[in-house]
Structures are given as C-alpha cells and as structure tokens.
Amino acid sequence: MIIQALLVALITTCSSWWFSHAITRSWLYPIWSGFLVGIVMGQPLQGMMIAAAINLPYIGFITAGGSMPGNPQFAGPVGTALALVSGLDVNTATTVGVILGSVTILVWTVYMSVNTFWVHMAENFLEAGNIRAMRICNYVPSFLVSALINGVPAYLVVVLGAPFGGWLQSFPQWIVDAFGVIGGLMPALGIAMLLQYLNKPKLTAFFFLGFALAQFASFSTMIITFLGVIIAVLIYNFNGFAQIEQAGE
C-alpha cells in the first residue's frame, strides 16, 4: 500500500507540474492521470471507467486568462484513488471528483503564486550568467511545491482512504442517491460546455446525426467515430477539388 500511495502521489504531483505538460498535455486531464492511478492500484479497468467519468465534466475545460473553473489536475488522480480505495460507484466518484476539483481551485492558485518566486530567482541567476542554477530554478522548486500541496494529500488519501470510505458509506441512503443523480448530470454539463465551442450552423447537423445514430440506430461510439472520419475526409476532398476548379477558371 505504501508503494501504491507513493506512486499515486507522484502521478498527482506530475499532473500539476508544468514540465510534465511539456512532455504531454494529457497530464492535465483526469482521463489520463486517473487511468495511471488505476494501473498503479491494480484496477486498470475500473480506474479507467472512473477516470473517464470524472473527465466528462471537464471536457470543455479551458483556462481563459488564468481563470480556473476547476482543478482537474487534482480531481482526476485523487478522485480516482479515493473512489478505488473507498469502493465508490462511477456516478458517486464523478460527484466526488467534481467537488474535489472545485474545492482545490485555491490549491492551484497557491501553486502558481508560490512558483513566481522561482521565476524571479531564475532571472537573477540568468543575469549573473549562471545558466545551470537558472535551469534548476525552472524545474526543481516547482516540482517540490507540487509534491507538497498535491502529492502529500494524494498519498494520505490512499493510505487513509479506507476509513474515509466507511464514513461515506455511513451516509443516509438519500444522500448517496443524491450523489448518484448529481454525478449522472455532471457529464451533461461537460458536453454542454463543449457544444458551446462547436456552436456553428455548419456543424450542428452532424451533431444531431451522431445523436440519431446512437439513439435510434443503436450504433456504438466506434462506428459513429469511423463514419465521422469518413465524412470529414470526403468534405475535405470535395472542398479541395472545388478550390482547384475555381483556380482553373
């Protein structure tokens, strides 16, 4: 359990640490960090399902101008770990993940605020011509800060998660049912946020086409995706032919 807790803490630390985002932007999203937590905790399938459910409310997530509507970097790995050690179902895990993301916005603010000190320190080293020290300031301190405010809570969740799970299970049934209902509505919120970015008349028909194929024809997601790719390629080719013809005229 200690090894698992340390690995979960490392995953949570890297989810917020900027350098891991330079390697892959996927660290930002619960579907990746939560999936890694599932592998570490020996439940990859359940972890992937929980991580995907937690990710849905954040599917339209954007940090415009530094504004953070949530903290998915924390909600993904910690919410998945908490759900696995507590035996929560997917809907309840989604609610817990969203609550964690909302409550820990302050954690992200603290993380970014503290890291400004290392930026100024790196500038001073650069002016002094000490490139090695400047690089250390860019990498090491931000990792340690993330380990302290993100990794330590994640470690404690895994180590102390079982008693917390018992506390959750002691809730009245109506509270548990409410969590389930809210968790079922959260993905719809994420989908709605995504549709706002796709709110273009030319794309609306394709959205309803996909919905109709899934609802009335019972097509799987993979089949709809495959058809969507074919349609996209055809439209791209037809537009290319039209531009060639116009250029020839």
TrEMBL record:
The keyword Membrane applies. Keywords: Cell membrane, Membrane, Phosphotransferase system, Sugar transport, Transmembrane, Transmembrane helix, Transport. It holds the Pfam family EII-Sor. InterPro entries: GatZ_KbaZ_carbometab, PTS_IIC_man. One of its GO terms (biological process) is phosphoenolpyruvate-dependent sugar phosphotransferase system. The keyword Ligase does not apply. It is found in: Cell membrane. The chain crosses the membrane at residues 32-54, 96-118, 139-162, 174-195, 207-236. This is Phosphotransferase system PTS sorbose-specific IIC subunit. The lineage of its organism: Bacteria, Bacillati, Actinomycetota, Coriobacteriia, Coriobacteriales.
